[in-house]
Structures are given as C-alpha cells and as structure tokens.
Amino acid sequence: HFMVAYWDQTEVAAGKVYEFAQQTFIPSGKAFLIATPDDLLTLASKYNGGEYAFFEAQVVNDIDMTGKGYTNEGFSFYGTLNGLGHEIKGLTTPLFNLLYGSVKDVTITANAVVSDVKEWDEINQYGAGLLSNYTYSGHEGQIIENVTVNGSLTIKDLTNDGNHYRIGGIVGQTIIPIKNCTNNATITLDGYSTDKALSVGGV
Predict the structure, then answer these.
(1) What is the model's pTM?
(2) Cα 78 to chain centroid, rounded
C-alpha cells in the first residue's frame, strides 16, 4: 500500500481512482497571446479555475488594465510569461499571487494597496510584491529576468499573526533567481503594529 501525491498535494491511494480538474495544455511551440486586457483576464480566470497549466504566455501589445477589475486572488502561474518588451499597466493589485514559473522582458506598472498580506507557506510567513506576492520552485530553469516594476506598493494595517513579513517591489518572497531587474516602485508601510519580524527590500 502506498500513496501518490499530485502537485496540489492531493494524495491518491494505490488501487484508487481520482478525477483531477480538467486542464488545457497548450502544445509545445505554441503560446497564449495577451493582446488585450480581456486576454489577461481570461488567463487569470483559466488558471484560477484549474484549466490552464505549464505553458508560455506572450504579451504582444502594451496592456492597460485600468478599470478592468483585475484581481490576482488565487492566481498561481506555472508557465512562462514573456513580455516581449511590453508593459502591463493600470494594475491595482500584484500581477500574480504565486509564481511557480518564469517571467522575462516585461514592465509592470501598478499602484497597489494591500491590506491582506498573503501567507506563502505553512510556517506563517507572509509576502507581497508588485510582480508576485511570492514564488515557489515548480520546475528547473525558473528565472525572473529583465523585469521592471513601476508605481507604488502600500501595505496597510500589518497586524496579522505571521511569523515573518517579506515585502519587495518585485516579489515579497522568492527562491528562484532574479536577474537584470529594476524596481522603481515606492514601498509604504501604513499601520505596522505587530511584534513579528519584517523584511523590506527594493527588489
């Protein structure tokens, strides 16, 4: 008797059948193209619904998300986002909640106010950043490269019970390499009233 753990930590006993959520795998060499704000909204909703996984998304135009109601709630990105030198702007929330993949050659412009800093692991550590709140090792070769972040990140009422808060312009917490990236965003703490550890960095 043994157990098999799927990537989402679901355990399946030997001899048993488990029906995983339907997913769409885009063939190798193909990419999901982000040409309009609606395309980015579709990408986020498909990932949140478990329909998309492990592929490349390409930003083929500058994207303005002003007034589009974009949210990163539950958005864990497992693929590669290739910005092709374009900008995603008008965000009022970090682009991703969790980054399992890679991001390259993109500019993110956001003015985000975060009042619910996201927990990133089982030991109550919390992170916030304008590209992604935190990252995790999902596959070999992951990297954040040639990314520029503009705008502002304001953390409000940092009073919850995390053991350690990590705040950064690009990512709050990362275990994957960051290369040739620039943070131009300001970081503001508004209402820091906890005795827990706090780390704030530009990147």
Answers:
(1) 0.77
(2) 9
DSSP-derived letter for residue 194 is: -
Burial of 15 (0-12, 13-18, 19+ CB in 10 A): exposed
Among the residues of 16-169, which ranges form H helices? 37-48
Q: How many angstroms from the chain centroid is the CA of residue 96?
A: 2
The secondary structure of residue 101, as a DSSP letter, is S
Count the helices and strands in the chain (H runs, E runs).
1, 19
Query: Residue 4: beta bridge partners?
Result: 12
pLDDT for the residue numbered 72: 83
With residue 104 as reference, give the H or E element that holds it: strand 102-114
Q: For 137-175, give the secondary structure using H, E and C.
A: CCCCCCCEEEEEEEEEEEEEEECCCCCEEEEECCEEECC
- In the three-class reduction of DSSP (H, G, I as helix; E, B as strand; rest coil), residue 38 is classed as helix
Q: Compute the distance between CA of residue 100 and CA of residue 104 in angstroms, rounded to an integer.
A: 14
Phi, psi at 27, each rounded to 5°: -60, 150
Q: How far lies 188's CA from each of 4, 74, 148, 201, in Å?
A: 44, 24, 19, 11
pLDDT in tens, 70-125: 988 778 888 899 999 999 999 999 999 888 889 999 999 999 987 765 555 544 55
